[in-house]
């Protein structure tokens, strides 16, 4: 699969120059960063693996309420969910196979270690801060579409071949048909 949709007419990434691309201090102001639209969510990349010597990436996502993000896992990627505003239901499977769900509200935090199945559903329009193992932060750009328009946009739903190619490129296992056997909310810890 070609990722040409991520490049400008000169072959550079569409967001080229927004982040420094190497470890050096920088500041982004409100609304700045590399933006991508995916499934109606606006992802804003704040720091990538390029700036952290491959260690981690940080992004925000502004999400309308909606459908369950399909169950998936990523063998080499840890993932953090910190809810800045709104409410997000996080579905988790632990190493013993036990299924859990937690409703995360503003100020709440969730961590999913690499390799564990998880999914989430935005219950109330939300803004999330995400931290992931370096390299994975480009998933929204790889699967979605880069944008400079910060206004609400129609959802961008990638065609299945593009979705599968992005999943392969970033070592994501899509677990379609996975059923969450969750007896009830675990609102506590």
The assigned structural class equals mainly beta
CATH first level: Mainly Beta
Please tell me how large the radius of gyration is: 16 Å
Measure the end-to-end span: 42 Å
Net shape: globular
Order of helices and strands: EEEEEEEEHEHE
Stated plainly, the CATH topology is called Jelly Rolls
Mean pLDDT: 87
Given as residue ranges, the uncertain stretches (5+ residues, pLDDT < 50) are none
How many helices?
A: 2
β-strand number: 10
Name of the CATH architecture: Sandwich
Count of all domains: 1
Strand content: 35-45%
Query: How many strands, what sense, and barrel or not for the largest sheet?
Result: 10 strands, antiparallel
Amount of helix: under 10%
Q: Can you tell me the CATH superfamily?
A: Jelly Rolls
InterPro entries: Cupin_2, QDO-like, RmlC-like_jellyroll, RmlC_Cupin_sf
Pfam family, one: Cupin_2
Protein name: Quercetin 2,3-dioxygenase
Explain this structure to me?
- With 189 residues, the chain is mostly beta strands.
- It is built from two helices and ten strands; from the N terminus they run ββββββββαβαβ.
- Strands 1, 2, 3, 4, 5, 6, 7, 8, 9 and 10 form a ten-stranded antiparallel sheet that branches.
- It starts with 33 loop residues before the first strand and ends in a 15-residue tail after the last strand.
Defining traits:
single chain; 189 residues; mainly beta; Jelly Rolls; 10-stranded antiparallel beta sheet; 2 helices; 10 strands; 8% helix; globular; Quercetin 2,3-dioxygenase; Cupin_2
């Amino acid at each position: 699969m070609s990722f040409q949709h991520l490049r400008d007419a000169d072959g550079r990434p569409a967001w080229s120059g927004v982040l420094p691309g190497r470890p050096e201090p920088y500041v982004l102001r409100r609304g700045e960063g590399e933006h991508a639209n995916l499934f109606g969510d606006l992802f804003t990349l704040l720091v990538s693996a390029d700036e952290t010597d491959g260690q981690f990436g940080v992004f925000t996502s502004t999400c309308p309420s909606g459908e369950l993000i399909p169950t998936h896992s990523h063998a080499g990627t840890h993932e953090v969910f910190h809810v800045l505003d709104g409410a997000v239901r996080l579905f988790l499977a632990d190493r013993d196979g036990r299924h859990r769900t937690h409703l995360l509200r503003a100020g709440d935090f969730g961590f999913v270690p690499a390799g564990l199945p998880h999914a989430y559903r935005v219950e109330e329009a939300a803004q999330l801060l995400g931290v992931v193992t370096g390299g994975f932060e480009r998933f929204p750009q790889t699967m979605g579409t880069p944008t400079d328009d910060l206004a609400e946009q129609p959802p961008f739903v990638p065609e299945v071949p593009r979705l599968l190619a992005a999943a392969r490129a970033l070592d994501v296992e899509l677990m379609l048909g996975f059923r969450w056997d969750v007896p009830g909310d675990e609102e506590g810890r």
